[in-house]
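RECORD TYPE: inverse folding
INPUT: structure tokens
STRUCTURE:
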């Protein structure tokens, strides 16, 4: 059965040869930022890149910093991720010993291989004492310097998932976001020979840093977009799902599944619907049955949890009155096949916000485009995805 929660890894990971190949090639000279809307499979791609780099003998650290909301916490997560690589733990301890005086006893334990099971708890406690809001820039440098010593094979790769979310958290909590972005950039510039970064995040980095004029601190990343599956790949993905379950596949069934989901073939929605279909399917699966599963299951109560966050995140990330304007616009475009003329959308925007500011209106539209809600079709705007539009229409959000 296809994976539908968490990143697709190992046997569950399907293809993405082009994206993974592009990233590996570009990493030869650049740091990379992956750009994609939510749920397009970014983390899965990152984990596959990590696997390939490990296979080639490179050291690769993976961090998920979705819930990190202060620079000192970032440094603690970084040190913990480095510490988690068992094969280089002693080397890491040795490299940090001089800089982290209060942890030196613990590091001596590790070096002497006398470390017991509670070592990680002790480490985090110690790091919390050592790394604070008033010294994270120097401490962070010490940790990066120690990481550089972990492998003679260079560069060492740092895969950082949800970096944009983390910066967004810092901005919201008023925790040195600007300083953190400046500092990270200087680390990247000074370490380009030794360290290479692959970062991603499911909120748009550009939108997050716009409010603090931070674009220039992230413009050194080479950007790699992660799009939906191509039609050919999506069909192959569906066929493999049928084969794995020993259910007879016919091309018209695959086409029907894709027809229900609609372009772009977002891996997550494709995987969920495929899984639902395979669970319901017997030997007599027909196109009409697939349509029924789509309407009653994916768009029914069972599918609710998958879509709700698209509604919730307007409130969380857009703030009022932009969230209200966005909702009004989406409510209107769910009704039209050919899309809503931009001028009419501007009218809705003015009513919702009491602002007559065309620039702010266009910013909102670009944000909605970035976040997977809408797409531009000449002078009209439409829902980006059929399945999301169907859901919006049904639940009258
Ligand atoms: N290459 C893939 N092969 C198979 N399934 C995939 C693939 N990529 C994504 N999926 C499907 O999409 C789901 C989400 O994948 P992943 O966590 O990688 O996405 P994401 O873009 O990081 O999501 P988020 O925006 O929540 O961080 C997986 O559980 C799986 O169902
Ligand atoms: Mg992810």
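DESIGNED SEQUENCE:
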């Amino acid at each position: 059965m296809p994976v539908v929660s968490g990143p697709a890894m190992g046997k569950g990971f399907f293809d993405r040869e082009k994206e993974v190949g592009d990233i590996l090639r570009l990493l030869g000279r650049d740091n990379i930022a992956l750009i994609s809307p939510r749920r397009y499979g970014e983390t899965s791609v990152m984990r596959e890149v990590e696997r390939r780099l490990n296979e080639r003998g490179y050291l690769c650290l993976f961090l998920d910093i979705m819930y990190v909301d202060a620079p000192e916490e970032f440094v603690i997560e970084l040190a913990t991720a480095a510490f988690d690589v068992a094969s280089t733990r002693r080397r890491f301890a040795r490299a940090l010993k001089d800089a982290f005086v209060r942890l030196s006893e613990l590091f001596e334990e590790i070096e002497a291989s006398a470390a017991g099971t509670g070592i990680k708890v002790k480490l985090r406690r110690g790091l919390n004492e050592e790394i604070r809001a008033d010294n994270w820039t120097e401490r962070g440098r010490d940790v990066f310097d120690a990481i550089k010593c972990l492998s003679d094979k260079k560069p060492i790769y740092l895969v950082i998932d949800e970096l944009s979310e983390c910066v967004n958290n810092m901005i919201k909590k008023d925790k040195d976001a600007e300083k953190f972005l400046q500092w990270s950039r200087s680390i990247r510039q000074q370490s380009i020979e030794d360290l290479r970064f692959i970062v991603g995040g499911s909120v748009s980095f550009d939108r997050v840093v716009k409010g603090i004029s931070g674009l220039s601190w992230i413009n050194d990343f080479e950007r790699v977009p992660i799009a939906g599956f191509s039609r050919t790949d999506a069909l192959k993905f569906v066929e493999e799902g049928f084969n794995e379950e020993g259910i007879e596949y016919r091309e018209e069934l695959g086409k029907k599944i894709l027809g229900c989901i609609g372009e772009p073939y977002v891996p997550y929605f494709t995987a969920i619907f495929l899984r639902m279909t395979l669970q319901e399917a017997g030997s007599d699966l027909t196109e009409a049955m697939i349509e029924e599963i789509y309407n009653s299951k994916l768009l029914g109560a069972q599918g609710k949890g998958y879509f709700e966050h698209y509604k919730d995140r307007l409130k969380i990330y857009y703030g009022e009155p932009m969230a209200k304007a966005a909702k009004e616009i989406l409510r209107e475009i769910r009704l039209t096949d050919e899309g809503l003329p931009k001028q009419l959308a501007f009218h809705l925007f003015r009513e919702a916000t009491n602002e007559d500011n065309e620039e702010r209106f266009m910013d909102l539209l670009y944000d909605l485009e970035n976040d997977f809600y809408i797409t531009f079709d000449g002078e009209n705007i439409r829902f980006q995805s059929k399945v999301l539009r169907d859901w919006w229409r049904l639940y009258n959000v």
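NOTES: The first strand starts at residue 32 and ends at 35.
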